[in-house]
Design brief:
It contains 19 helices and 23 strands. By secondary structure, the protein is α/β, with parallel strands linked by helices. It folds into 2 domains: 263 residues, Aldehyde Dehydrogenase, Chain A, domain 1, CATH 3.40.605.10; 195 residues, Aldehyde Dehydrogenase, Chain A, domain 2 (3-Layer(aba) Sandwich). Strand 6 and strand 7 form a beta hairpin.
Length: 501
Amino acid sequence: MDNAMETDAEDVPVETHLFVDGEARPASAGRLYPIYNPARPDELVGHAAAADADDVDAAVRAADAAFPAWSSRTYTERAELLIAIADALSSDDADVARRSRLFCREHGKILRETHLELSRLGDRFRLSASYAERLAADETLQGPPFDTIITRQPRGVAALIVPWNWPLSILGAKLPQALMAGNTVVVKPSHNSALAPSQTLRIIAEMLPPGVLSVVTGSASDIGDPLVRHPLVRFVNFTGSVEVGRHVMRQAADNLTPVTLELGGNDAALICEDAALDDGAFMRMYMGAFMSSGQICMALKRLYVHRSRFDEVVDGLEATCNRMVVGDGLLDGTNMGPVNNAKQLQVVTDMINEARHSGTDVRELGQVPDEALYATGYFQRPTLVVDPDPSLKIVAEEQFGPALPILPFDTEDEAIAAANDSRFGLCSSVWTEDRDRAVALSRRIEAGYTYLNAHGPAAQDGRGPFGGFKDSGIGRNLGYEGVIQFQGHHTISGPSGWLIS
């Protein structure tokens, strides 16, 4: 394991390597790059290896060489390995705590969230393993005119590109699925959050045959295109921004490499006049919007409230936000950490300032026990933007930060039209006590996932496919469908009465 201190020891900078063809190694050019703590931007957390195109080529070629043996294993054999990996990921409480602390320092999200993300990663390996029997079962069509077997086969080397916001959870929606499907894998973690993810990926990779899983870290400008464009890469699964997703798709097109793209979201929530609005509901709304400082693709980003309940919702959310403590995520009592990086903080504060300058009611809330730290780090209080003009960026675009617009509606048709008036279509939520109304409204929303009386990761059922419509992407992750995304159908036909008895 790469150098790191125990959770009760003084934090010192760590160094992580690439992992290629069964071994940890430095980047071929020997380069490293620094990662700093977004809560304390002068604090060096560590250095990650800065790979180049040669490192990418070595990783892809190792994966290609490992593919025949790995793909020839049965689903049961692969499932057994995935279960063993799941056990290993959670077997050492002290190591999980150490990586959680490192993850908090490099990312900024509070320690409770980093521990949750790390400790539950194994669950997604177990879920993928549970599909072994279903995956092994071919579909058969008896003639006449032919007897036909419809089966599937893995695509080959899969390139998995993971963002910085929830890197391990998002990895858990791609990696075990790709492995279970029979593919070998090259993972590129985000440049901004590479230390704890690299250490975690090494645990996984060391339990697999050499070449089945390789990890390359570094700048997207240096290694992104060489990975996506590599002629031996047979599938690309990318999570990130719409702009980069379009670029990935263009690069993959030269080799006709298929892609799954899980991109941005501007999730709408509809609060109906009969919604149950108690402290628990307001906390679920808060978590849906502000968990990880709002830096979640499926976060609640537009809140539409029936006019008869509008003031009640604003007051309830304001009270909930004001109980939250904003600061260093390592400190006891902190409920919200910083935004991950200065660029994203600027995006969020620009939207807030635009709304404020337009005359909109903007409420920056929460408690800040350390004003000096707040002024130094990449912090933004949880912010409610009350009844803004829909043309403002805080409504029309994805904030990806701790700011939430709240808008009134009078009719269901008006609410649906507002929810669908977006170039995004990732997630949504409906809040009502009427189950028939909940399902009927959900079916009218242009989104890949709809939560009922909750929103976001805490309400996610990993057994269902996840992804979006419109600019929110192509394809699906998670669930059984997330495994077969990594496969292609293979049809075998023969004379009627001969092939299938």
